[in-house]
Amino acid sequence: MAHSSHDVIVVGGGVIGCAVARELATDHDILVVERGQIATEATALAAGEITMTPLYTDNPSIADYANEFFSKYDGTGQFEFTERPSLELVPPDRKYEARKRIERLAADSLTVSFLKPDVVEANYPRFNLEEFVGVIKYQDTGFVDPYTLAMTLKNDAESQGATILTDTTVTDIRIADEHVNGVNTSEGTFDAPHVVVATGWRTEQFLRDYAQLPIRPYRTQCIVLDPIKAVSNEFPMGWIPGEHVYFRPERTGSLLVGGWSFTEDNPDSASEKEDEVFRDHVANLVPGFLRGFERARFVNGWAGVDGATPDTRPIIDAPRDAPDGLVVAAGFHGRGVMTAPVAATVVRTLIAGEQCPFPRDPFVLSRLNHDRQTSSSTVSVLVIEFP
Ligand SMILES: Cc1cc2nc3c(=O)[nH]c(=O)nc-3n(C[C@H](O)[C@H](O)[C@H](O)COP(=O)(O)OP(=O)(O)OC[C@H]3O[C@@H](n4cnc5c(N)ncnc54)[C@H](O)[C@@H]3O)c2cc1C
């Protein structure tokens, strides 16, 4: 059986585990332990949207931090970040609320604008906004290929000395005197004074003996549509509140449409195929606001499971009641790819005792004010909505 000692053990080799490993590997001896292969669970299924700006309007420094990372990381290995504005389509019943929101965001110096349908259609002729009063346009958004991002982060971590173990399941965390001192795995025992748990939707169950985490599995889905005439290079991203769907162009000229997220009681056996009813919904919805999609070809579809929290933000914390040395990075609620650089930095500051360049409060476990009885029921059936 294998045995070695490290500064930090990262459990889980999804995008979060890989980002954490890269961030710490510069000056720590890191071991990543992954039960399967790197980036093959939620990470591989993500749509790759980077929409931190509309999601963190209350904390723009967090969004700025992530956006800057993606811009700078663009071109590293195979990784590419495609910057693209996002349009929130505003139906008539949301007009007042949308205007108010824009005023508030503009007062906070965010680059947002309200565009009337004719202006949008002049800029983006594929749009047909008869049923909308306009759009809110957000700058500083874009998309990535999540698998390539995770593999590039992993390669970076390895080139800085991190060890990556795949096909190895962590069975439990070893604790002595209320301090972690390593993990037991299917392949042996490993020592470290810090263990970072980034096991995606499995985290609540995995850590149940050490911390109560209000993280629930939920299932969400995507389909790709091929219009007869490809969408252009300038085509924006966007979403429709109320319909619970978002969309973005693919580099091939197809359109990726995702959404419809619901808590999942049987995550291990949840269907990996998109629901027929979701496919029908999208097929009816898209031609209503995009020209040239009436006879779009269905290219691909899938569904995946991620971890949800009651306030939609992740838990990135060394929980007060947990053993010393234990750090959690989970509950990314459909946003783990875009939040990965933020998560990596929060974890680093927790382990190295460094100052965080942005507020950490949105990620602390205690904000959720939960207890053991309510921990899993506080996340009710949810619909994930932007922003
Ligand atoms: C359909 C879909 C669309 C999405 N779209 C977006 C998007 O557009 N933008 C965005 O930012 N996010 C999106 N997400 C969310 C994003 O995919 C997740 O938030 C993110 O991948 C979470 O990363 P992770 O590393 O925490 O989890 P995962 O990728 O699930 O990785 C966790 C890893 O831990 C491993 N593991 C678990 N238990 C153990 C154990 N005991 N021992 C060892 N290893 C273990 C697992 O094998 C897995 O590889 C989407 C998700 C889905 C499903």
From TrEMBL:
Gene Ontology MF: a single term: oxidoreductase activity
Entry-linked InterPro entries: FAD-dep_OxRdtase, FAD/NAD-bd_sf
CC annotations in GO: cytoplasm
Family matches, as Pfam families: DAO
Origin superkingdom: Archaea
Keywords on record: Oxidoreductase
Signal peptide: none
Domain FAD dependent oxidoreductase residue range list: 7-347
Gene3D superfamilies xrefs: D-Amino Acid Oxidase, subunit A, domain 2, FAD/NAD(P)-binding domain
PANTHER family per record: FAD-DEPENDENT OXIDOREDUCTASE DOMAIN-CONTAINING PROTEIN 1 (PTHR13847:SF287), SARCOSINE DEHYDROGENASE-RELATED (PTHR13847)
Listed name of the protein: FAD-binding oxidoreductase
